[in-house]
Amino acid sequence: MSGRQHRFVPPKGAVDLLLIRHGETQEAVRGQKFPMVDGHGDPSLLAVGEAQALRVGERLKAEPITAIYVTKMVRTHQTAAPLAGHLGLERRVDPDLHEVFLGDWDGGEYRFRAAENDPAFVRAKERQEWGEIPGAETTAQLQARVKRGLQRIAAAHADELVAVVVHGGVVSAALAVATGSPAFAFNGANNGSISRIVVHGERMILRGFNDVSHLDGV
After folding, report:
1. Does residue 110 lie in a domain region?
2. Over the Cα atoms of the chain, what is R_g?
3. Domain presence at residue 199
């Protein structure tokens, strides 16, 4: 008799989610807000971000993906477009998976405050609490809505592989919830990267983080 090592198989009824961070976006200019959507900055992709989106499409075009989800932000639609074209799928918007609401610092100001180590930014990092930023949503609020959105997708796509094009803060929140890690443990996913979780009811299983093997040279 012989026995092979265990290979992971998603539980029956689970959804296998590819969490794709959008491509790199336009630079912020001090004193000029990005276009805004519902209080959120909505920058478009740079040329390098478009190249990253093409690489994502090439990487995943042969996968048995049954649905593609995006957020209300244009950068996720642009990033998903090449993959949607390869697969012939429509992009679906989930209302709970948009980026962290940054309050007074949304629209591009956050980038400058972070670069300057503004005291509120430093407190946010130390306490792993987005709510330290004036007017921003709290970490608990972010994690609750991200979990709700992912569970909604899971309920609609049992036993399927689904691509979800989202934001760095959303990837971070999803993986922290899945693993029980500190809230900011997974901050910093690269633009165009692919992370992976399996969602089965209340259970979330981390399968991969920040895969950028398709982005060499971009």
Report:
1. no
2. 17
3. yes
Question: How many Å apart are CA 172 and CA 184, to the nearest integer?
Answer: 7
- For residue 176, give the amino acid letter: A
pLDDT tens per residue, the chain (218 residues)?
A: 778 888 899 999 999 999 999 999 999 999 999 999 999 999 999 999 999 999 999 999 999 999 999 999 999 999 999 999 999 999 999 999 999 999 999 999 999 999 999 999 999 999 999 999 999 999 999 999 999 999 999 999 999 999 999 999 999 999 999 999 999 999 999 999 999 999 999 999 999 999 999 999 89
Task: Please state the pTM of the whole predicted model.
Answer: 0.96
Q: What's the one-letter identity of residue 153? A: I
Q: What is the DSSP track for 97-151?
A: -SPPP-GGGTTTHHHHHHHTT-HHHHHHHHHT-GGGSTTPPPHHHHHHHHHHHHH
Residue 43 lies in a domain: yes
Quote the DSSP letter at residue 197: E
Tokens of 110: 């956050």
Residue 154's domain comprises: 15-101+136-164+176-213
- Whether residue 138 contacts residue 107, with contact meaning beta carbons closer than 8 Å, is answered with no
CATH number at residue 94: 3.40.50.1240
Counted domains in the chain = 1
Asked whether 100 and 130 are in contact (CB, 8 A), the reply is yes
